[in-house]
Amino acid sequence: MALIEDLKWRHAVKAYNPSEKVSQENIEKIVEAARLAPTSSGLQPFRVLVIENQEIKNKLSEGALNPECMREASHIIIFAAWNRYTAERIDKVYDFTTEERGLPQGRFSAYTDKLKSIYLQEDAEVNFAHTARQSYIALGLALAQAAELRVDSTPVEGFNHAHIDQVLELEKLGLKSVSLMYVGVSDPSRDWIAPMKKVRISKEEFVIEYK
Ligand SMILES: Cc1cc2nc3c(=O)[nH]c(=O)nc-3n(C[C@H](O)[C@H](O)[C@H](O)COP(=O)(O)O)c2cc1C
């Protein structure tokens, strides 16, 4: 039940206290939850960028739906996914996995050939839609980990993707921003949504059962 209680505790914070910082230890646990997320074929086709630097936060906030929130959060975790699949990227992951597991080289080559035959003939946009979806699982786990630590956070899609990609030169890394997670300490005087009831549709409406 602990996880359910954690999820009931959390809410998408609307304003942070700029003078409060989240500990490095807690940031590392949140990022670790993201790193441990399952991904399609285990490719982990995304990275997280952890921004604490105030100047960079200010720069990134241009064009955001709620720029103040971004500037005042203690940290911004950016989920950025591979802009496309490549043979090199797929091979690198599977060479590493093979080595880590002490398996003979080429153990997964039939499987990676299959992956390449599917992904490499798709447009980059189709690849990115897939890599981006993987990153949302990590965002969800990071939100849950923050809640377990009683660290306030906000999942965010309301930002200027092109601007963030350009400021952080993500193209050079073969990445494109997908979502953000603000992490910090809520400012109760301005976090207007905090006292409101958490609203979800009923279980009856949500679950479609076939017994
Ligand atoms: C992928 C995603 C993107 C979101 N983008 C924003 C956003 O840009 N700004 C914002 O204030 N909240 C954003 N939210 C928060 C949702 O509005 C919020 O999670 C939802 O209303 C449920 O409320 P709760 O998280 O407080 O339970 C986002 C949530 C998710 C999952």
UniProtKB/TrEMBL annotation:
One of its GO terms (molecular function) is oxidoreductase activity. Keywords: Flavoprotein, FMN, Oxidoreductase. Its cofactor is FMN. Residues 7-184 form the Nitroreductase domain. Belongs to the nitroreductase family. Gene3D superfamilies: NADH Oxidase (3.40.109.10). Pfam families: Nitroreductase. This is NAD(P)H-dependent oxidoreductase. The keyword Membrane does not apply. The keyword Lipoprotein does not apply. It comes from the Bacteria.
